[in-house]
């Protein structure tokens, strides 16, 4: 692992413990077991570390979505794939997921920033518009779609990580199906189901 990666890993731990505002170069250097001078060799400011880290985590987060080419699937299957991938990613990378949530809900985040840099999200947004025009998907703001799908998956990750057996009475597949149908019109939801 490079020094930059070590600094990123330390920053995730510090941010998750103290929050974005409470994270300082001093705390990051202590967690990384390097001098503040080493950190300043790689980054000019704490903000630069945070933004650089977010870019790295975001890449790994969005890379999981392209596996299986969900954008080529019908809209319901596309969102079910995304939902399940987020759930799996969150279980495998809880610290990264928590960091992303803290970043997304902070002053650092600008909605246009993510859309501008993510080819996947741009293509998904185009797929959403097409599904809305075809009457397959409810006409909702992207923030509502995010909250109703991705947000729910993240909440299920948190429940699971806290020891709740959220799938004792139903399967991951059935929950993903029910959640993702919430953004579809009833007509499309009834005819587009397919179990994996």
What are the key terms here?
Tetracycline Repressor, domain 2; 196 residues; mainly alpha; Arc Repressor Mutant, subunit A; 11 helices
Low-confidence stretches: 188-196
How many domains? The number is: 2
How many angstroms does the end-to-end distance come to? Answer: 38 Å
Number of strands: 0
Average of per-residue pLDDT values: 86
The best one-word shape is elongated
**Portion in beta strands:** under 5%
Q: Could you give the order of the helices and strands? A: HHHHHHHHHHH
Do you know the CATH architecture of the largest domain?
Orthogonal Bundle
CATH superfamily of the largest domain: Tetracycline Repressor, domain 2
Compute the gyration radius: what is it?
19 Å
Structural class designation: mainly alpha
Q: In CATH's first tier, which class of the largest domain applies?
A: Mainly Alpha
Helix content: over 70%
How many DSSP H or I helices? Answer: 11
Profile the largest sheet: none
State the CATH topology of the largest domain. Answer: Tetracycline Repressor, domain 2
Can you characterise this structure?
The N and C termini lie far apart (38 Å). Helix content is 73%, strand content 0%. The longest helix has 21 residues, at 46-66. It has eleven helices and no strands. The protein has 196 residues and is mainly α. It folds into two domains: 1-44, Homeodomain-like (Arc Repressor Mutant, subunit A), CATH 1.10.10; 55-191, Orthogonal Bundle (Tetracycline Repressor, domain 2).
Give the gist of this structure.
Helices cover 73% and strands 0% of the residues.
């Amino acid at each position: 692992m490079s020094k930059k990666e070590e600094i990123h890993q330390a920053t995730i731990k510090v941010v998750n413990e103290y929050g974005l505002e409470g994270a300082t170069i001093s705390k990051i250097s202590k967690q990384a077991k390097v001098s503040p001078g080493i950190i300043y060799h790689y980054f000019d400011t704490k903000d630069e570390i945070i933004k650089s880290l977010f870019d790295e985590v975001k890449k790994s987060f969005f890379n999981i979505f392209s596996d299986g080419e969900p954008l080529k699937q019908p809209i319901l299957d596309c969102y079910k794939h995304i939902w399940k991938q987020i759930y799996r990613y969150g279980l495998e990378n809880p610290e990264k997921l928590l960091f992303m949530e803290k970043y997304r809900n902070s002053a650092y985040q600008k909605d246009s920033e993510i859309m501008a840099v993510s080819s996947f999200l741009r293509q998904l947004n185009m797929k959403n518009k097409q599904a809305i025009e075809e009457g397959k998907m409810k006409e909702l703001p992207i923030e509502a779609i995010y909250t109703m799908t991705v947000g729910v998956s993240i909440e299920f990750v948190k429940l699971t990580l806290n020891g709740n057996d959220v799938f004792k009475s139903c399967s991951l597949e059935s929950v993903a199906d029910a959640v993702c149908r919430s953004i579809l019109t009833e007509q499309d939801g009834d005819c587009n189901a397919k179990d994996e």
